[in-house]
Amino acid sequence: MVDVPRVTREQKRLNRERILAAAGEGFRLRGIDGMGIEGLMKSAGMTHGGFYNHFASKDDLAIEVLRQGFTDSLAALAAIRAAHPRSARAALHDMIDQYVDAEHRDHPEIGCPSAALVSDAGRHGAAAQAEYRRGLDGYFDAIAAMLIEYGCESGTEISPAEAREQAVALFSQMVGALLLSRAIVDVAPDLSDEVLVANRNRLKAR
Fold it and tell me: What is the pLDDT of residues 102-133, one digit of tens each?
């Protein structure tokens, strides 16, 4: 009888992370429906049949991609805030510069899922929308907190409700600017850049 090597718990965890990483990049770049399980597993360097050892379905994987993507993006936002401990205004401007940026536009596969997967979340049912909503709330809460801090620093304090409203509007404009710039970058790169620059300037002028 031939001994079949048993996959260790650590190897199984690493395999799952490889699938999740491949899906995170592939889904952001091509959309959830634009990448099948076979192509996904090939990108992860694994066989098709191994997928179901880790995820019940591609929809389950998509939800995990949204969850992990927003977790990483919010951690990056927290790092931006921590890099400017004495100025919430500087942190807000840094956030805008990094998000509404040509590098972010040109590499959706490693960018924030808020823009890259916005349409997919709307098409993939309540569970995907709920995960996307949790990510949005994380952004809204973090930005609102910075706006409140900025108000205290500048002597123009705002209420939590007003900060929340401004945060929702600010982040919505950031996402919209990125989506518009991506939509035309191949045929009108100058206009695509103009969209980014105009929105960065206006967002930072608030």
Answer: 999 999 999 999 999 999 999 999 999 999 99
The number of C-alpha atoms within 13 Å of 163 and in the hemisphere containing its C-beta is 19
How far is residue 183 CA from its own chain's centroid?
17
Q: Measured between alpha carbons, how far is 153 from 150 in angstroms, rounded to an integer?
A: 5
Rg value, the chain, Cα: 20
Instruction: Name the DSSP class of 45.
Output: T
Q: List the end-to-end C-alpha distance of the chain, in Å, as a whole number.
A: 72
State the pTM of this model. Answer: 0.90
**63, 51, 53: which is closest to 7 by C-alpha?**
53
Contacts of 122 (CB under 8 A, 6+ apart): 129
Q: Is 113 within 8 Å of 66 (Cβ atoms)?
A: yes
